[in-house]
């Protein structure tokens, strides 16, 4: 097939500027490369060209080059992406493209990070429990029932959701107690599996996986290359039903309305104000991803405004009456439909100054 | 332990040592299934994964896993599946493997459900099965178009679940089954003719690792990286094929490579990416640049009876398969590939050298998105191609190697003069004959993965003493591995790889000629000298240039086998097309070409095919067999049938 020369039907190659992080766990820096780019190429094509020319030892993971294996995750201009799915045509011709490794995981070399955290969490998540007494071949499930779990099984384990999650992105210390979005949807998938014999998936997620740490900024959903609705279809239903069993959310919210100011905060909102509403979409008001996607001014501001060493209160259940219920009904509630378990007066994403995240190295700069 | 071979600090090398009962090289479907089986047999098992755990090439399989469960059409059974497989492989298959595969696939698929797999369902809640090229009935268990991902994730999660059991029982996840991620094996180590272990390196650190193990299962996949346009990832460098050769095993059928008929040829960001055959199963048609649906012109005589002759009949088949013949777009993939190649050569191709695959004008956008979700989203995101609005530009792409390690069909034990070596999946040969049917590889992985793992375990059980790893072999392996880093005068490995890909793509590609094949062998010899002097810049930590330099020698020896076998086989059959010998020759059907390594050179040998058992031959019509068998074989068949009839008549009389 000698006929399909990429240039036969396209524009001639152009020279583009790349800045690629080179180094290892002892440090490194961004290095400049000028590299040829052809029409229709993706960032991974360009990295391969660099390996074949200027930088033969440039370390980078990849496998399928088709967005199906989730190996080539990296941060491109600060945004976590699959490099095989990032078209060069999404950048302007004079734009310098900065490529850095995933920030949440320890560096091994260049663009390769140590993602073993994820495999450890995978091992801790209890496996599928086959239904007792059902022989292989006798499993019967309806399409409509398997589809909910199938959405989560689309996951290609690129770990972009894990990388972008605020709870661990700049918080090494949270990693032991927090499994991350990938494993919340694993728990959700098993919870929704029509034949899974365990019925404590939600409780497990809450008690062992650190589901309560999640403050639903939906960053995971935003970066998911498979467009899995991680938050809406996985995390929130898990949270709601956990809350459902532990304490009625209506009531919990009711207590917020009646006793405003004394309401327990979830562990990730700051103590500044319980009613922080932030103007969504404002240029300076983006929530922090640290990387290149945020406004440095806002980040600086955020870091100044937060006491990094303060104790964050754990969520506590509200007081119940002698029947184990909260003394409140829907009649006294001021809106229709289910409320947010975080309070309807909290808008996500939260403003950065209300988040208590810090990079372990932030004081060095 | 420390091995000191030279005073030079760069060769004074720390080697991490491990003891296992079974080492499985490869963490795709076959490797994981083999490891599960070995662990279930109580063996201490290591899984060596060249990439991260769960990234193997199996994830790329889209169509499904073929198994005659009969969920959609109850007339399906193993005999029909066996027939389809043999037909697809042009009767060159190892019949016993095809038989085992057809019989055992349903159990292997059902078993996956007990591991947590969620296949798409039929209305009555069973596993749904879809049509696919070459399969008589809807037979492919599937999950949308990401069946391979489901398969690998399920096996991965089953391994995790076994590790959790081990943790509960023995206190460590890794007590009985451990995954060595991003680890490459460069050499198998022998004690006489017995496998004693495997030597390799961690990609991450460049540190060496030695496994002492009496049994090794090869499950390393294929060789596609030696080709210019390929759907295969960087891992597919024929490691297992080469390791087997160097350990004294033999390869068969290496001339048979499957070029997937419909890989994307434009735009470049998706070049080589496959468009699943289910696009055609779901109504997609192939058109040339003149807008003609050309496949009707390319139905070979052997298939004439089963395929529609008019567009109208073909279109009716989608809704009424029992009363209409199949559209010719669903011919086996080699026929489709050849047809596309002919159209392009005749000047009726697209500017990028392919043809159009059109589903957009045949199905509503909504239905395309529902039936082919990841295909839709992949092309939309990768290349901004909307398959619901415009036709795709497709052409032949190197996809799968039918050839591989010659194995005992029941156990997966490698032939040749080595014991303790097993192979399963793409790296093994014989199962698919000269051509693989779509959907047969996922079930192949499971059926023969399980068998190889189980038999490796019982082989290890049956040994009276453990083979010993010879120190000299380890030292030699270290030296070979470090050599490219120590040279600074040789060529860049990437250049060498490109040159190799050019030789194989241009001269040993989909259509082959004697002169070109001879030329290719000459160039491969030159390349061998250059590869022997390759040098890799940089250090040992995660250095892809070094890794490629080490893979090159595997790619080279396997390419040599392919070129030699392709030159030897003077006929066209399945995945081997000779322009100078365009016909299929019954006499060649009885011959397997077997490659072995003698010192450094590939030696090729003819070997007769095993003879199919009478009750299996009896599954075919005489008219069909006549297309494949020699007159001599047909006479035998007739005698067999006559004897059968006599026996029946005798039985009748007695009653």
Question: Summed up, what is this model?
Answer:
With 365 residues, chain A is α+β, with helices and mostly antiparallel strands. Chain A is built from eleven helices and seven strands.
Assign the CATH class of the domain at 472-608 in chain B: Mainly Alpha
Report strand order across the widest sheet of chain A: 2-1-5-3-4
Question: Which protein chains make the most extensive interface, counting residues with beta carbons within 8 Å of the other chain's beta carbons?
Answer: A-B, 72 and 89 residues
Largest sheet of chain B: 5 strands, mixed
Helix percentage range of chain B: 25-40%
Oligomeric form: heterodimer
Helices and strands of chain B: which structural class? alpha/beta
Pathway (chain A): Carbohydrate metabolism; tricarboxylic acid cycle
Cofactor (chain A): [2Fe-2S] cluster; [3Fe-4S] cluster; [4Fe-4S] cluster
Domain 2Fe-2S ferredoxin-type (chain A): 16-103
Family (chain A): Belongs to the succinate dehydrogenase/fumarate reductase iron-sulfur protein family.
Describe the protein's architecture and organization.
The complex is a heterodimer of chains A (365) and B (655). With 365 residues, chain A is of the alpha+beta class. Chain A has two domains: 14-113, Ubiquitin-like (UB roll) (Roll); 116-131 and 142-307 and 317-364, Orthogonal Bundle (Fumarate Reductase Iron-sulfur Protein, Chain B, domain 2), CATH 1.10.1060.10. Helices cover 27% and strands 11% of the residues of chain A. Chain A has eleven helices and seven strands. A five-stranded mixed beta sheet of chain A has the order 2-1-5-3-4. In chain A, helix 3 runs antiparallel to helix 6 (181-192), helix 6 (181-192) packs antiparallel against helix 7 and helix 6 packs across helix 9 (230-246). The longest helix of chain A has 17 residues, at 230-246. Mean pLDDT of chain A is 78; it is low at 1-9, 259-294 and 305-313. By secondary structure, chain B is α/β, with parallel strands linked by helices. Chain B has 19 helices and 23 strands. At the A-B interface, helix 1, helix 2 and helix 3 of A face helix 3, helix 4, helix 10, helix 13 and helix 15 of B.
